[in-house]
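TA notes, week 10

Several of you asked for a full example with nothing omitted. So below is the full record: structure tokens for the whole chain, then the designed sequence directly under it. When grading your own attempts, check the secondary structure regions first.
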């Protein structure tokens, strides 16, 4: 049986302008705890995760160390890495920071810092799938009819049964995702998620079932919804 490490890479270097708050969205309170701290806690408390790398804007590293890592006693944080201009740059910075500690077959789970309602089942399935395929993406089937639009005019209605809404974690063996990010940087190619970089090189990324509650908090409305979801999830845990 092959033994490999499982590492969480949590990019939280976004500015969160759509939130309209005086601080970056990852530090806003979700039921009395910073959003990013709730996200970290899921990986911290999972026996499946060996270490966590955070990617934070350079000017916020000291704040994050004091008010998140130390304040909540997180022990799996291997490094806080300075973020880049865009998310893709930040993820590559994180991958570069861990490369001396990992082998090509170790699994990296890349997860948004403001997606705090991820659950243990998603972590388990992500790791299992990524360990034997080119990658794994948590996703949920699209509920609404989707239109493609050009210049304000609908030009297509894709079949809904073929559409999935991508979430995170997006998980890969380290050697595969690091090479894909390095290639994208060299070619000046940018994408909105990590799986796209694997798809670009012809890799096969598998879907694992996400959760409609696993939302990315980007607007004030998302924060309200996350509080409701969190309360419901805590009630479910108490009933188990």
């Amino acid at each position: 049986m092959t033994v490999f490490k499982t590492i969480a890479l949590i990019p939280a270097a976004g500015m969160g302008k759509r939130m309209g708050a005086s601080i970056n969205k990852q530090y806003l309170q979700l039921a009395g705890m910073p959003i990013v701290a709730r996200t970290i806690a899921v990986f911290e408390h999972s026996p499946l995760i060996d270490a966590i790398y955070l990617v934070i804007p350079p000017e916020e590293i000291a704040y994050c160390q004091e008010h998140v890592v130390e304040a909540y006693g997180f022990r799996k944080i291997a490094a806080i890495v300075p973020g880049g201009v865009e998310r893709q740059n930040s993820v590559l910075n994180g991958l570069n920071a861990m490369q001396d500690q990992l082998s090509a077959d170790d699994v990296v789970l890349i997860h948004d810092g403001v997606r705090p309602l991820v659950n243990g089942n998603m972590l388990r399935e992500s790791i299992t799938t990524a360990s034997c395929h080119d990658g794994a993406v948590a996703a949920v089937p699209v509920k609404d009819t989707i239109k493609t639009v050009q210049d304000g005019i609908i030009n297509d209605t894709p079949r809904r049964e073929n559409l999935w809404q991508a979430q995170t974690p997006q998980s890969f063996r380290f050697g595969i995702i690091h090479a894909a990010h390095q290639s994208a940087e060299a070619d000046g190619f940018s994408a909105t998620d990590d799986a796209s970089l694997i798809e670009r090189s012809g890799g096969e990324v598998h879907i694992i079932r996400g959760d409609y509650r696993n939302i990315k908090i980007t607007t004030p409305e998302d924060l309200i919804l996350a509080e409701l979801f969190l309360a419901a999830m805590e009630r479910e845990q108490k009933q188990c």
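The CA atoms of residues 145 and 159 lie 8 Å apart. Use that as a sanity check on your answer.
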